[in-house]
Every structure is written in C-alpha cells, then in structure tokens.
Amino acid sequence: MASVASKLYSDDVSLLVLLLDTNPFFWSSTSIKFSQFLSHVFAFLNAVLGLNQLNQVVVIATGYSSCDYIYDSSSTSNHGSLESSRIGLPALFGSLIEKLEDFITKDEELIKEEEVEDRIASSLLSGSLSMALCYIQRVFRSGNIHPQPRILCLQGSPDGPEQYVAVMNSIFSAQRLMVPIDSCYIGAQNSAFLQQASYITGGVHHTPKQLDGLFQYLTTIFATDLHSRSFVQLPKPVGVDFRASCFCHKKTIDMGYICSVCLSIFCAHHKKCSTCGSVFGQSKLDDASPVSNKKRKAPET
Ligand SMILES: [Zn+2]
Ligand SMILES: [Zn+2]
C-alpha cells in the first residue's frame, strides 16, 4: 500500500466528511432552530463544493441512538424528488433533506423512555466517527488518486462518557491515517471529546460565540483546505480538557487508577483489571504468593 502522502490527488482537493448532530434532545433545548442551523450548513457545503469542482462532501447524521450516511456529493442520485424542487429547495440538497427527515423519524422511534432517564442526552458520536473513518478508508483503498480527507464534527450535544473508549479509539485511528478531525461545538458546555479529537489529530477546534453568524465561522475556519492552513491564522487551542472517563462507571474523572498493563482507567481501586484480567499487587507479601491465574501481575500505579 502506498503511503498516504504519495496518493494525494492534488494539494487542495478536499473530501469533507461532515458529522451533523441531529440529537432531538439538544435541538429542543437550544436558542437556534434546527432549520436555521441547516441553512448555515447548506450554504457552507455549497461553498466547499464551489471552491474546487473536484471537492467532495459526505454528510453523516449523528442521532441519539443511531447514525447514518445521508449525503454523498459523488453519488449520482442526489437530485431530490419533484416534491422538494416544488417547495423551492435547492436541487443539490433535495435528497439530503429527504434522507435527513427519514433518519430523524427513525432515530426518534428508537428512543426508549427508560433509557433516556439514566443516560446523558448525548449523540452517538463514536458511531458516526467510525462511519466517517470507514468511508475514508474505502477512499484510500480505491486507487492512487483521491482527494485529501478531513472530518468536521458539528456537535451541540454533551459528551457521552459511556462512549469514551470508542471515541478515543476512533481518534487514534484518525491520527494514524493522518486525517484531521475539525470540530465546531455549538452547545452550552465544553466538549472534552471534540477538544481532544482536534488536538490529537491536528485539526481545528472552535466554539462559536454567536450562532447567528455560524456560516461565517464555518467558511472562514473550516472551509480552508489542508494545504492552505499553513498560510492562514486559525484558532489555536486555549487549553484542552484531557479528562478521561473511568471504565467501571463511565464517569468523567479528574484522578483515578490506571492498569499498567492495558492502560484501563478506574475511579476506585480494584483487585483485578476488568479489561485485561491483570491482578493488582497490594504489597510485597502479595508478590510472593503464587499467581492463581496465568495473567501477568501488574504493579498498581
Ligand atoms: Zn468508575
Ligand atoms: Zn488492564
């Protein structure tokens, strides 16, 4: 397999994979309407496609309990039905809106009431990140010539600590593939996941102050292709929230215990690592006793 650098199409042709947060719990609580938000996003996508005729845009919807591909500009079946052109929608995004509506309806059907009560109303970011990476991997394997991929997370929902491991695995995969994850966080809190994703993969993280100017933030920061980024002043991270979630209760913690064999994180002391099975030594006396299982004994850190 050729290295990533040698397979590039040209230095300014982009493949933008946009992860769109459609979480109904977030959109029912925010000041900006989902339709207003979409009009900013569509204008931005049009701008990206207009910058270079070889640019490609893929949109993945991130719902509460599911995620799905809803638009691919390289696909030929993008023209919406007569219905959407009749109500005055741009032809380019006619099929996107139809698929988005279907997706949101299906996603809401999957929401179970009892589940909502004991879970933070986060979106399925880990799922859509994985889908984006799968798509990019397919593009990488399709041949020697392909656009330069990047991922943009447009997220408003809070982080779901129970997705910590899956999100971090996706981030490290993106880092390996040299795919930057840009993130635009429009929610009320800060997103440690997105801050870490952009920091680790060399992407840009930004939290717009005024959502009615979202289009301007999107075009001036996130429309910039990777080649041009060295020539413009983009927002620099002002401190990244590096907190992790414990593997035992999926809670965000400031300090905890780490298994020295597999690096699993726990909020309290355990006798045995639940991930790799290593037995944590308590004292020197413990070390002298025979190891009952065949796993390595790990010193507690
Ligand atoms: Zn815990
Ligand atoms: Zn372990």
Automatic annotation (TrEMBL):
UniProt superkingdom: Eukaryota
UniProt KW keywords: DNA damage, DNA repair, Metal-binding, Nucleus, Transcription, Transcription regulation, Zinc, Zinc-finger
Pfam families the record matches: Tfb4
An example molecular function term from Gene Ontology annotations: zinc ion binding
Main location per the UniProt record: nucleus
GO CC annotation, single: transcription factor TFIIH holo complex
Example of a GO biological process term: nucleotide-excision repair
InterPro entries: TFIIH_Tfb4/GTF2H3 (IPR004600), vWFA_dom_sf (IPR036465)
Subcellular location: Nucleus
PANTHER family: GENERAL TRANSCRIPTION FACTOR IIH SUBUNIT 3, TRANSCRIPTION INITIATION FACTOR IIH TFIIH , POLYPEPTIDE 3-RELATED
Quaternary data: Component of the 7-subunit TFIIH core complex composed of XPB, XPD, TFB1/GTF2H1, GTF2H2/P44, TFB4/GTF2H3, TFB2/GTF2H4 and TFB5/GTF2H5, which is active in NER. The core complex associates with the 3-subunit CDK-activating kinase (CAK) module composed of CYCH1/cyclin H1, CDKD and MAT1/At4g30820 to form the 10-subunit holoenzyme (holo-TFIIH) active in transcription.
Family according to the record: Belongs to the TFB4 family.
Known function: Component of the general transcription and DNA repair factor IIH (TFIIH) core complex, which is involved in general and transcription-coupled nucleotide excision repair (NER) of damaged DNA and, when complexed to CAK, in RNA transcription by RNA polymerase II. In NER, TFIIH acts by opening DNA around the lesion to allow the excision of the damaged oligonucleotide and its replacement by a new DNA fragment. In transcription, TFIIH has an essential role in transcription initiation.
The protein's name in its UniProt record: General transcription and DNA repair factor IIH subunit TFB4
Organism annotation: Arabis nemorensis
Organism classification: Eukaryota, Viridiplantae, Streptophyta, Embryophyta, Tracheophyta
